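Example 3.2
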Amino acid sequence: RLVSDWSSDVCSSDLANAGNGSFNFEPGNTTTKQIQTNGQNFTTVNFNDNGLGALTEYDLIDDWTILTILTIKNNCQVNVPDAVTANFGRTNINTGGILNVKAGGTLAMEAEETLTVNDGGKIKIIGENTKYARLTRQGASGTYAVNITGTISARYYLIESLGTNGINLQTNAKTESPGTIIYGGGGDRKSVV
């Protein structure tokens, strides 16, 4: 378990056996945190509100691979910025949690896994007109599922390699448009806007 008071607001270290066990990010304050993995893989990662009652953001500053499960909980936002790839296995965004793929950032899901945005959770895939935000799969084959019961906000994005249900908007799902949406084709199993 990795717990820090984030006094330097940067988590950057070599962890013995980083790929084993569960890592919990639990903030001591709401200052934006930076996560640098130095290429190490993680098995299970949880972002937990530590009772602060306000949003804490976590900026990835290098590529990050989570092999099995990522869970983002209340008052936690994980940001995937420009030139960073987040290679995630099963991903759960719970009530009050936010996953934010920014312009030039890539969220690459493991094939045959599921990205779930639960009621009250949110995923943002918002790029720029000259630099898309990208949601794709890891590797050269396979698909992944996306199930939304919470909120999706997307603009200037490339979403590709989805399973047969595409982005599955459940009955209570909400969409937020950060601007005019222009629909365009991107080929087989792709959506470009």
